Amino acid sequence: KPLAPEALDPTFWVNAGAVAITTLAGSELILRAGESPFLQSVLPFLKGMTLMAWGFAAWWVVMLFILGFWRHAARRFPFVYTPGYWSMVFPMGMFTACTIMCSKALGVASLMAVPRVFIYVSVLSWLPARYFGVLMGWDDPVVGGRTMMLAGVFMVVTYTMNALAPKLAGKFAIATTIIKLIPLLLMAVVG
């Protein structure tokens, strides 16, 4: 069955975030290997697995950007905001952070080219949360506790909505139709 544009959900980005967390954890272990004889004994394996995890994370990111371009530019799928796009924020930031740590842990300076560009993508994805904080008049709209909490709430709500969407779609459509009919009925009765 061919891939349909509507099947590409922004929550696929969570996969990139999971592998980025693995890369970050491996990088931290490599940097602390001198503190543990066990880590010293498995250091070559740890370096290989960390680099492999970073490769998988990079593969996910590149593939998702290409598929996003295909979805919206090539297939002309409408680009409208949905809360599902919040599931892209954390993975982009995590990929940036894991690449910085992987570069330090493995001593591969050329990897730093990725976060130098990708940090801007991450910041651009965070701007809606900041904007919401400013609109609400919060005194800490950039990285304060409420903004971080809001981003977390957005991600949980987005995941829940995506998980329940197939079950609730019909009920939501019926409810909105009924809500739209109420003013029409009132206008017909009241005049």
Summarize the structure in short.
The protein has helices spanning about 15-30, 35-40, 45-75, 90-105, 115-135, 145-190. With about 190 residues, it is mainly alpha-helical. The protein is elongated and about 80 Å long.
Quickly give the structural class: mainly alpha
Q: Give the uncertain stretches in residue-range form.
A: none
Q: Sheet with the most strands?
A: none
Question: How many DSSP-defined strands?
Answer: 0
Distance between the termini: 53 Å
Strand content: under 5%
| Shape call | elongated
Radius of gyration: 22 Å
Separate helix tally: 6
- Kindly state the mean pLDDT as a whole number? 79
Percent of residues in helices = over 70%
Helix/strand order: HHHHHH
Give a verbal description of the structure:
- With 191 residues, the protein is mainly alpha-helical.
- It has helices spanning 13-31, 37-41, 43-74, 89-106, 113-135, 145-190.
- The protein is elongated, with a radius of gyration of 22 Å.
Question: Key terms for this structure?
Answer:
191 residues, mainly alpha
Note the topology.
Layout: H1 13-31, H2 37-41, H3 43-74, H4 89-106, H5 113-135, H6 145-190
Helix pairs in contact: 1-3, 1-4, 3-4, 4-5, 5-6
